[in-house]
């Protein structure tokens, strides 16, 4: 591997030859799309075979993690680096929350290889093959802004947490346009307080460079996932607002540390401000 083409975590990202990136994308996207079709077949077989005895879908989730993670972890000139994994495995049941910079975040999170259920907008469940696999895994759908759907989501999350499952949420609700954390929605933190489970923050760095929001042109690099210490409702006096603020502050601070001054994005300036 040419080390000049790869930026490790916290290192400046080198400029890449336009021809190299064009060839990379020309090969990467057909591979991703074709293997999504091919790998759905074994996922369906695993679901059918384990249906009588694996209600928690543990085997299917392991396969899904391998399926999703390999697009980044095994990609040339890319990769994932996971730090603090022991924190992710010591707080179950819990609610994982992560920052959201890119569609690649989903692939990066699968590298944790820990049991969890996504809480995701319902539109994702209708994406061919990938979305259908979400149904098979019993992930939790949510229609944004639709109160009956929100209530169903809360009841489903309660059941899943009571059964011992972990949940995974992007509390920003959408991808950040500049890499900075945007305000969190309170839903995950209300769930944590209501059902007495910890929040486990996961900070992701590098995905926004690979595939920025509103772009489909991949620029490979190494991605870092850093799992932070769990935040319990009791440590915030069972106040979901305090829990949210503490989590947001810790994640932004850690993100700044991971990036260093060279990669820290400039603050967003509102051009309409007087």
Describe it for me?
This protein is an alpha/beta fold and 274 residues long. The protein has a single domain (17-260), classed as Glycerol-3-phosphate (1)-acyltransferase, CATH 3.40.1130. The protein has helices spanning 18-50, 58-73, 85-88, 104-109, 130-136, 147-162, 187-195, 207-210, 240-263; strands at residues 79-83, 95-98, 117-121, 140-142, 167-169, 199-205, 222-227. A seven-stranded mixed β-sheet has the order 1-7-6-2-5-3-4. The longest helix has 33 residues, at 18-50. The model is unreliable at 1-13 and 266-274 (pLDDT under 50).
What is the strand tally? 7
Largest sheet features: 7 strands, mixed
Name of the CATH class: Alpha Beta
Strand order of the largest sheet: 1-7-6-2-5-3-4
Large-scale geometry: globular
Return the domain count.
1
Helix and strand arrangement:
Blueprint: H1 18-50, H2 58-73, E1 79-83, H3 85-88, E2 95-98, H4 104-109, E3 117-121, H5 130-136, E4 140-142, H6 147-162, E5 167-169, H7 187-195, E6 199-205, H8 207-210, E7 222-227, H9 240-263
Parallel strand pairs: 1-7, 2-5, 2-6, 3-4, 3-5
Antiparallel strand pairs: 6-7
Relevant terms:
274 residues, alpha/beta, Glycerol-3-phosphate (1)-acyltransferase, 7-stranded mixed β-sheet, 9 helices, 43% helix, globular, disordered N terminus, disordered C terminus
